[in-house]
Automatic annotation (TrEMBL):
Domain Signal transduction histidine kinase subgroup 3 dimerisation and phosphoacceptor as annotated: residue spans: 203-267
Annotated organism of origin: Streptomyces glebosus
Listed transmembrane segments: 12-32, 44-66, 101-130, 150-174
Cellular component annotations (GO), alphabetically ordered: membrane
Region annotation (Disordered) ranges: 408-429
Protein's recorded name: histidine kinase
Keyword set includes Kinase: yes
Gene3D superfamilies: 1.20.5.1930, Histidine kinase-like ATPase, C-terminal domain
Length: 429
């Protein structure tokens, strides 16, 4: 019952929206037809009513903001779920045509129901009281004598039922037509899908940056703190150096965290607080890793210092994640890092022995593999490829990044892999 009342209000609103167009046509019709008077002649009123509907359709075609207004009214008064209706203005012409059809239907049904609501109830009251109020028989001379008896109240009740039935039927029809005419068009669905994809890509980008920036620092600090704790009583000088390394590592981590937060500021349209690290900071990264007790042997071939900023930035993150995997999963074991520029691509290889590994054995680690998937995504976005595999007790991470262009990288099984950086088993993308 409450829904029916709200739908009746929605129909009356349509009648109110029809009035400006009706008054405009009521003024124009006498200028086009001699003797026409829509204000006094019922026939010409119907002509003006019919002429107002094309004007309403034209208004809906020219004003895209009409759709969100109608959607808000339908959602609030017609009981149509919001997920079945489109959001935003009608940008495409297909959406505008649908909105115009809806607007005409709303105003047509609203005009009929509003007219019946204004005229039928007073007439019904007269018919209901006619047999019991003798003065009404003299003040309502246009009522046939047949309604002066018992047929009068019956006709009054039938008239009220007609108004209620018409309002109910029109409300149901509009409620069913709303998702079709005000629902998202294929263009709207495509735009929503693209927006969702952009949001997911942004979230994945932030997750990768946060994982790489903070994960490496936490892995190094964990090893440094553990080493300092073990030798605190026997070698205070080593513990002091480890604490100094922890201080430096955390300071650098805060700076990189500020860089990640700068990405959020980029999303808001403002400038980032700090530039993202590139291969220019490779020596500092290696120094922090060595300070954590991991001996790193680095080999650089070719002019890596003059790479494109985007390639240098992603390469730095890949190296950082490779070293983090060694810290996190293999501990203080020797790591070999190789960077080389050859045949128009940057080759990155990180190798480390896997402690206690059995050749070919796979070790499942719940929740792992986010760093590897991040490396795969970074390589794929640049049109490159990445592989990670354990062979003969050595974990080898390899990434190839093209130096020019950005094609579609080959990624095989990226989503299926759940292994982490330096465990046993094989990961391929």
């Amino acid at each position: 019952m409450l829904l029916m009342g709200r739908r009746w209000v929605h129909l009356v609103l349509g009648g109110a929206l029809l009035m400006p167009f009706f008054l405009l046509t009521s003024v124009v019709v006498p200028l086009l037809a001699d003797g026409a008077n829509p204000f006094l002649d019922v026939g010409w009123q119907f002509v003006a009513f019919g002429g107002a509907l094309p004007l309403a359709a034209l208004a809906a075609l020219l004003f895209p903001l009409l759709r969100p207004l109608e959607v808000a009214a339908v959602r609030s008064l017609c009981g149509v779920p919001a997920e079945r209706l489109a959001e935003g203005p009608a940008v495409s012409w297909a959406a505008r045509r649908r909105t115009a059809l809806w607007f005409v239907a709303h105003l047509l049904a609203g005009g009929i129901v509003s007219g019946m609501t204004l005229s039928a109830p007073p007439a019904a009251v007269v018919l209901l009281l006619l047999p019991f109020a003798d003065p009404l028989r003299h003040t309502a001379p246009g009522v046939p004598d047949v309604f002066h008896g018992v047929l009068g109240p019956l006709a009054g009740l039938a008239l009220l039922a007609l108004v209620v039935g018409t309002a109910w039927g029109a409300g149901v029809l509009l409620g069913r037509a709303a998702p079709v005419l005000l629902g998202p068009t294929p263009a709207d669905r495509l735009a929503a899908a693209e927006l969702r994809a952009a949001e997911l890509a942004s979230r994945n980008r932030l997750a990768r940056e946060l994982h790489d920036a903070v994960g490496h620092a936490l892995s190094a600090v964990t090893l440094q703190a553990g080493a300092a704790r073990r030798v605190l009583d026997t070698d205070p000088e080593f513990a002091r150096r480890a604490l100094a390394a922890i201080e430096e590592t955390t300071r650098d981590a805060v700076a990189e965290l500020d860089t990640v937060l700068g990405l959020l500021r980029e999303e808001d349209g403002s400038d980032p607080a700090a530039p993202a690290p590139t291969l220019d900071g490779l020596e500092a990264l290696l120094g922090r890793t060595r300070a954590a007790g991991v001996p790193v042997e680095a080999t650089v071939e070719g002019p890596c210092a003059g790479l494109a900023p985007v390639v240098s930035r992603e390469a730095y993150r890949i190296v950082q994640e490779g070293l983090s995997n060694a810290l996190r999963h293999a501990g203080p074991v020797p790591v070999r890092l190789h960077l080389g520029v050859r045949e128009g691509e940057l080759l990155i290889r990180v190798e480390n022995p896997v402690a206690g590994a059995v050749a070919g054995a796979a070790a499942a680690r719940p929740g792992g593999g986010r760093g590897l998937r991040g490396i795969a995504e970074r390589a794929r976005l640049l049109g490159g490829a990445a592989t990670a595999a354990e062979r003969d007790g050595v974990w080898r991470l390899t990434a190839r990044l093209p130096l020019t262009g950005a094609g579609t990288g080959t990624v095989t099984g990226a989503e299926a892999g759940t292994g982490a950086g330096t465990g046993t088993g094989t990961e391929e993308w």
